[in-house]
Structures are given as structure tokens and as C-alpha cells.
Write a structure and sequence with these properties.
about 350 residues; alpha/beta; Quinone Oxidoreductase, Chain A, domain 1; Rossmann fold; 2 domains; 7-stranded mixed β-sheet; 6-stranded parallel β-sheet; 10 helices; about 25% helix; about 25% strand; NAD(P)-bd_dom_sf; oxidoreductase; 2,3-butanediol dehydrogenase
Length: about 350
Amino acid sequence: MKAARFHDRGDIRIEDITPQPLEAGTVRIDVAWCGICGTDLHEYLEGPIFVPAHGHPHPISGEDAPVTLGHEFSGVVSELGEGVDDLAVGDHVVVEPYILRDDVYTGPESVDYHLSDDMNFIGLAGRGGGLAENIVVKRRWVHKIDSSVALDEAALIEPLSVAFHAVKRSGVKAGQTAVVGGAGPIGQLTAAVLHAIGVKVIISELSGLRRQKALDAGVADVALNPAEVDVVAEVKKLTDGKGADVAFECTSVQVVFDTLMDTVRPTGVIVVVSIWGKKASFDMHKLVMKEIDVRGTIGYVNSHPETIALVESGKIDLKPFITGKIGLEDLVDKGFDTLINHNETAVKILVSPSGKGL
């Protein structure tokens, strides 16, 4: 079958590979759509990061580069391993793409399995990937979705779960006000979750196309251009001078973080959602005098069921965030290149590994 394989920085190849064997307790999934994630772009430009470098196998998967990429994907069950009796061939599914040690507790009460030692992701550290025609995944990580949810939209449930977990970490409640710094894919999806639970959303974003996307999708009440307006002053106007209850940093840009420190009210919360490749700084005195809480967030933990429910109920419409669809052979030229060099024009580009969806 065809698959996109990461060999090294700047070196992704479309290759013919042998499908993974079906084992007891696993599910084979014919991939319908796979999204290109910012993490994939970082691997291509700066990696290997999450991908184990050639000659340095991951301690859990035992694999090293080259590996098949892709961790944001949807598909259809095509084969069931021995012992899997709660799914059926033909079911529509998405994957929670974790690679964890076998002794890590991942039951419904766990709030920290995503923080366990050597945690990594399917589609980055091995065990197949969504940028292939099919994949075999342990049953624990496969989540059934209603057939009423289009498979292209379902491919966004993985990044939407990132947003859901970030919103949950913030403690924000319906009727409160949130500022989202940055309207890239995760910023847009964070706004979508916030809007779905009844939070007033103010987005700060330089790109006019992305600001308009957030407004057109109905996930932002207000979209501000920080190059043209004083974001802090505007937020205070919109909150009767108090400031926002929570803010979400979705850019890994210092000036955005600094601005959010000023937009939140005293005792406000800032959640850092983006991955920073460098050290950040902030005004410790301001942190103390306003009693601000700064919280990190990574991935998701038992987040997929509630996230899927939001989509199935119609409270979140993912269709507006799909801005392109391509075949596997166009992954680098039309996918990575667009998102790296023209990222203001796109939110989420989906890949059809088999080409059937195009």
C-alpha cells in the first residue's frame, strides 16, 4: 500500500509498504481522511522531534525513522482482530493516537495517562500512521462515531480533542469571556469548543482571512487585528473594564503571550496550548499582583468521548475549517508547502491516502 514516510528533516517520501499484521485486540482501519498537523510541519522543517531518529528506536514502539506519518485521521473498520467484539466491519471511527507503555492505566478515571513516561504518538513514533491506505490500531485507541458525521469532518476530531482538553483545563464556564490569541487550526477549534459551551469568544489574529473564517464559522463573537487596534483596550471595553476571565495562547509568539497577560482580569487564567520551541519570558510582578494562573496543556486525556458527542449533537460544525483536500502524492507540494509558506490561506488540509475521497 502507499504511505507517506518520514526519513529525515526535509525528506518525506511516498512509498509502497507492507500493511501491518492484524493481531489479537487490534482493529484494521481503511483511512478515509488524514489532516496535516502543525507537528508534522515541525518534523519536516526542524525534526526529527517526536519521530525517533534513524538508529535510535523509540523505547515503546521499538521503531525509528523512516516511519509513516499522520495522527489526525478518520476511517472505516475493515477487519477485527481476535477478541474485538464491540465493533463491526463498516463502522466509522477515529483514533486517539497514543503510544503508551502497557502498564499505564488508561481507564475512564485517569487524568494523566497522556503525561506518562516516554509517551508518543501513532503516526510520529511508529505503529503506522494515517497517511497510509490502512492502519492497525489497538482497540483501546479506536473510537466509534455516528455515520451521520461525515468522515472528512471526523478527521478533525483529534485536533478538536486538543482544544477540548485545553478548554477543560481552563475551568471556564458558560457566560464568561475568553480571548484566543491566534486563529490557526488549534485557535479556531478552541474557539469552537468555547462557543459550543456558551462562552463569549474574542479572537486576536493578524491574518484577515483567518479572522473572517472565525466569524463566518460562528465561533468568534469578535475578531481583532492586533496591528490595527489596542487588543487590551478593546477587551476591557467588551468586558466592562474587568478583562477576560480566561485566555488561550495558540501561537508560541512572545508578544501574544504578553498581550494575554494584560487582557485577563485579576485572578484570570491563561492556558498555553501551543508548543514552544524556545524559552518564553513573562512579567513575574504582573503575575503576582494580578494573581494570574498560567496553565500548560498537552494532547488530551479521556477527551474523545465528550468531544465526539459535541460533534454528533451538532453543537460544533467542523466543515468550515476544512480548507483543502489533496491526494497522497501532493502531500509536500500542495500540503506542506501551502501550510508552511502560505499558512494564512488555510486552516486544515486533508489528505485522502487512497484517493477515493477526491
